[in-house]
Amino acid sequence: MYVVSMTDVVSLAEALIAQPSLTGAEAPAVELATAWLRERGWNVTLQQLSPARANIWASHGLGRVTLSTHLDTVPPFIGPRRVGNRLTGRGACDAKGIAAAMMVAAQTLAEEGEKRVDILLVVGEEKNSDGARAANALPATSRYLINGEPTEGRLASGAKGSMNVRVRTRGRAAHSAYPELGESAITPMLALLSTLDDLELPADSQLGATTINVGTLNAGHEANIVPDEAVAQLMVRLVGDVAIVRGILERWAHGRAELEFAPHIPAQHFHTIPGFDSGPVSYTSDIPLLDRWGTPLLFGPGSIHVAHTPDEFIDFDELRGAVDSYMRLVRTLLAS
Q1: What's the Cα-to-Cα distance from 324 to each of 301, 317, 319, rounded to whole Å?
Q2: Active site residue 125
Q3: Backbone angles phi, psi at 176, to 5 degrees
Q4: pLDDT tens-digit profile of 245-289?
Q5: Residues 6+ positions from 240 with CB-CB distance below 8 Å
Q6: Can you say how many angstroms the Cα of residue 67 is from the centroid of all Cα atoms in its chain?
Q7: Which residues, other chains included, contact 198 with Cβ-Cβ below 8 Å and sequence gap of 6+?
């Protein structure tokens, strides 16, 4: 276990990264963050989602601004390393480095006498955001929510939404020696997916274009069986009305495939503050699921372009600068 200095944000981030916390198994990081906060006098509420999973809500009383991000990471676990002026490892920028910056910023403000700041660290963001959905039932008192994702040190003016779509084509199984007796489900699937780029999808002046990624494609059972089913999973990044996109996809698949639509996260436009650089981002966050926590802002150090990669990192100076930025944001919001 690392010895974590109260004010050294790099050491705290390093300690959090060292705790495996893949989505669904976040307990080690939750335990470390909880201990760090309790040692410094925070009132900590653990909201259990299961025996091994919990959200953390830390407060000194009547919070008016909440700093929030997530402790879970995508697989695989990659431990921390210091390489030059960078801290590497899974969660360095998405989002354990951010969690560390928020914790140190809130603690520094508390030591200065500012007790109107809460901390909300949730689980499950990387899959179905079950942590945020549960946290929205907590009795929040904040007027503003500063959510943390790697925005490269800019306030996000807006963010695309997301929707998972399952595409299914069906065929007829047969022995591969006699393919004429069957009907491959792969052939119509490939033909259909190849036309995705031809769709005319909505665009937004701030958020840009709706995009669709083919994330997975699964079909068949064995090489010597004509496949009777093929399933593709699409991730749609939304910029506006989800009903319009659903209609486009339903017409695209009509008579050729079955579609299953998962619950979506809508596109968002966020609160910004004069004097802070701002711009839109293309990814989603937990913000739409935390509407009881106040007017949302989205801000964090690091780049989404290295998140979810083997080379994920955060610069020491950017991490330390984020502590100052979070404190400045909090003070500005409390004064408004």
Answers
A1: 11, 11, 9
A2: yes
A3: -65, -20
A4: 999 999 999 999 999 999 898 999 999 999 999 999 998 899 999
A5: 202, 204, 210, 267
A6: 15
A7: none
Tell the CATH topology of 161-261. Alpha-Beta Plaits (3.30.70)
pLDDT in tens, 126-148: 988 999 999 999 999 999 999 99
| Average confidence (pLDDT) over 28-42 | 96
Per-residue pLDDT at 1 exceeds 80 = no
Catalytic residue among 26, 125, 312, 318: 125
Q: Encoding tokens for residue 172?
A: 């007829």
Fold of 9-159+267-335: Aminopeptidase (3.40.630)
For the chain, what are the domain ranges? 9-159+267-335, 161-261
Digit-coded pLDDT (tens) for 85-94:
999 999 999 9
In angstroms, the CA 123 to CA 28 distance is 12
pLDDT above 90 coverage of the chain, percent? 95
Euclidean distance between CA atoms 169 and 27, whole angstroms: 39
pTM of the model: 0.86
Q: Which residues of 77-105 are buried (b: 16+ CB within 10 A; e: fewer)?
A: bbebeeeeebbbbbbbbbbbbbbbbbbbb
Quote the CA–CA distance of 15 and 293 in Å, as a whole number.
28
Q: What's the gap between Cα 39 and its chain centre?
A: 28
